[in-house]
Fold this sequence. Notes:
The protein is mainly alpha-helical.
Amino acid sequence: MIPDHVNALFEFIGGCMIWMNVVAVYRDRQVAGVRWWTTGFFAAWGGWNIFYYPHLDQWWSFTGGLWIVTANIVWVVMLIHYSRQRS
Length: 87
């Protein structure tokens, strides 16, 4: 299961990085130079991974995928919210 563990580590680290963006957007209450659809694509891909990993019996990756897709969804919602507030 080593490949599953390595992939899960990437998922968890990626999720932590995205959560740092969530905190920054929340703190700044604004969005500049970021397009929501870019992160939206990766959130959709994360949604696919949530479906796909169990079929591969990769439960560590599945757990990491939940972490990163949740962060991506929260960030997209915040990006849309603060972009609309500004206009």
